[in-house]
Amino acid sequence: MSAPKTPPPKRLKVFVGDFLEKNSEVPSEASCNDAHISVPGNLKSMKELKLDDDNEQKSQSDTIIDIDDGSQETIGEELTVTSNDRKNMSGKRPNSPLDYDRHSAYASAASKSPKRFYSSGGRAVVKCTPFLSQIISRTIAGSDSEVTPTGGTCSTRLAENDSFNDSNNVHKVRTGKTPPSQRRIYRLPVNLNQTPGEIPSDMTRFPQDAVWRTGAMEDSPNHTILVKGPFDASGDTPCKAAPSILVDRWDNHHVKMPYSLFSKYTDSDGTVVPRWDIVQRALVETMHSFDDLREAILSYNGGYSWDLNELENVIEEMSSQERADFFNTILPGIVRLALNLPTICTRPPPLLAQGHTHSVTMSQQQAASLLANAFLCTFPRRNTSKPGSQYDTYPTINFHTLFNSCNKPGRQDCRKEKIKCLLNYFKRVTSEMPTGNLTFTRMRFRCRIGWADSTTKFKKAFVTSEGFIEDQGQGMLMVDFANRRVGGGVLCDGCVQEEILFVIYPELIISRLFVEALDDDEALLMTGPERFNEYTDYSDNFRWRGNVFDFRDRDHWGRKYTQLVAIDALKHQGRKQQHEQFKIEKIMRELVKSLCGFQTPGFPRSAVATGNWGCGAFGGDARLKFLVQWMAASRAGRPLVYFTFGDHELMCQLRSMQKLVTQQDITIAELKLPF
Q1: Which of 72, 159, 380, 558 lies deepest, with the highest CB count within 10 Å?
Q2: What is the value of pTM for the model shown?
Q3: Binding-site annotation, residues
Q4: pLDDT (tens digit per residue) in 196-229
Q5: Which residues belong to the active site?
């Protein structure tokens, strides 16, 4: 008779809910050796962990944070910031979780991570706050602890008044609202002694010497091409406009162009004339001062009394030579670009409206001419986006909203620096016009995703606290943490991640002319923009720092090997809304939004370069957003590079989560979202 078979070891499932932070109070101080700490659930004050000198030398030493969520309190507790904390809330990288001493106010209020400091004696001191409760999938065999199913999972249950015995250092489990025997204790290894490291070479980037999978440059029902192909890579002139004759359309499906004969205006003598005649008459006059420029702009924008003070301030702060260059060279170049619009762009771009997948390809020269008209505020019907107006679901495009006085303290400098970025762009394109093309694609995701039965394994992910999306993420699919009206506050007071992208890549601003606000299942893909500007800092401390010369190669359509995708996250401002982001319908919305952006058609599957999307001012939890984007990228067949924008502790935490998922080799379905 054969011996009975040993039953297979029990394997714990990994649940997405186990990664989500629970409200808890902080206990009294307790030291621990071997870099282990037990943190029961009802915690009342900040806890410090002092690592001895021996542990400092252990490169692989882990901090084990045990989370007891027995109190069953709500998740995502709002972070309270004192008046002293608010003194240093500006000048930080986008969406960095809040650090009381260093980080921006635009941080995730729900992101609480361990803080690490070093005393003068060289001893590491780690201030620990509750980390994400989670279960490590592991083999349980021969354990002294009782294994009890809890909410569909397996967890180790401790007896009442039991304790953790860790290297002869015993930490009693404190009693709280819920008896310890009914609490789940989760253990997550978090190695704080990690270095950011280099992005792995196998993180796929757009090819420098290969052709993207694109066909001939021809119009199709789903793609409007405003230029004639093919692109001549050896030529030094932009592609010509298509068609060769002017097409004037004035309807609800196309941009209402400044030169349209359907745009009427009442002249000073009371006669009704084409508005373009007034624009031409005002702009052909030589302008020697800011007052001349303002008078010209207001002459064809009757009924408005814009002061354009921020533009005036930028001009006044120029040196005498810079001011002379502006009025003698840059401004006349902008005017020429604007007035030549009828020959540069011979038909109006279609509106990329909600509910439709469509692409628009234009030359960089056409984008520059359209932006010159936006600079001079010539677009009709686009001076307001108030509810009930014709374009109330579209972003603003005329630059008067950026040029007017700023009434928000601290944002005047931000506006002026953005204006400097745009003036540098016009200086560049009026002296030497780029010859390439760019494409804007509105994408709608129509398929129903079976997340619950997905057999897709998680793709490779790399988390780093060093570098930025627009620098180290070059050649990847770079994520724009977008407003549903693309560009957000780029033409007013905004100066966070999206607005900064739109002024260092100024050609992106033209998308605001024809892209309607994004719906929940839509994203905007922007292919081929050229970078013109360098910058430092963030928010109120944002500063223009000069030229960038973008030497990236082009594809056979003449587009730079640069691709950005705009996806807008849900806002979770306020304590109640921050809790709601963990509801399944909210998570599902973010999954669909991310997958829509990452499932780009027809291009090589490059890695996704992203970060704390929807955190910061939007109040999202960085750990949840990491999981959501990782799931979506994996489903789209892409690896993921995640930038924490200088937050070392968050990097270590996310790497621990990544290690957990990777070691278990689970599928997306096995993450066990309650679909």
Answers
A1: 558
A2: 0.76
A3: 483, 497, 538
A4: 999 999 888 876 444 455 678 889 999 999 999 8
A5: 480, 498-499
